[in-house]
Design a protein that fits this description.
Blueprint lengths: L15 H5 L2 H6 L11 H47 L9 H13 L4 H17 L2 H9 L2 H26 L1
Helix pairs in contact: 3-4, 3-7, 4-5, 4-7, 5-7, 6-7
């Protein structure tokens, strides 16, 4: 299988069979959340929220953030494999970038369901609208790492807004 994207060939649509054909596909498709028939990025972000909300209190800072760093690197490699197989690096079904970014947000904002709802909504707005640096990264950083970077920047914007809100109020 080629490791380049052919611009003349349309992207493939992943299926459950495709996802289960390679461990990288399972990871990059968010354990199936990316196969949602609508808004797969939202389902990926919900998975990240649920995982972080469940794991972070048990793991603690060192284990959680070390694990998140490892998952980010593994996710980047998985995105490359799956994006190449689908012939589109930033395919809508690839949601491991949303999973990682939302998990980071949940771990770094106050452990309040309602504040995490606000974080979720802000993240989805920034991920979809791609304001400022999010859009820049989306347009200018290619490959799997670019796919990850725009979501991490969107998460960073959410965290900056929370920091400002906490500082002011």
């Amino acid at each position: 299988m080629s490791t380049t994207i052919d611009q003349a060939t349309p992207a493939l649509q992943p299926s459950l069979r495709f996802m289960l054909s390679h461990p990288a596909h399972v990871i990059s498709l968010g354990f199936g959340s990316g196969l949602a028939p609508f808004a797969p990025g939202t389902f990926g972000a919900l998975l990240g929220w649920w995982l972080a909300r469940w794991l972070y209190p048990f793991a603690g800072d060192a284990w959680f953030f070390s694990g998140l760093a490892i998952v980010t690197v593994v996710g980047g490699l998985a995105i490359h494999v799956t994006g190449t197989a689908l012939n589109k690096m930033d395919h809508g079904a690839i949601v491991s970038d949303e999973v990682v970014a939302m998990a980071l947000i949940v771990a770094l904002i106050p452990y309040s369901f309602w504040l995490q709802c606000v974080g979720f909504v802000l993240f989805r707005i920034f991920d979809i609208a791609k304001p400022g640096p999010v859009g820049w990264a989306d347009r200018n950083i290619g490959g799997a790492w670019g796919v990850l970077l725009d979501d991490l920047i969107a998460a960073g914007l959410v965290l900056v807004l929370f920091a400002l809100w906490i500082k002011v109020f």
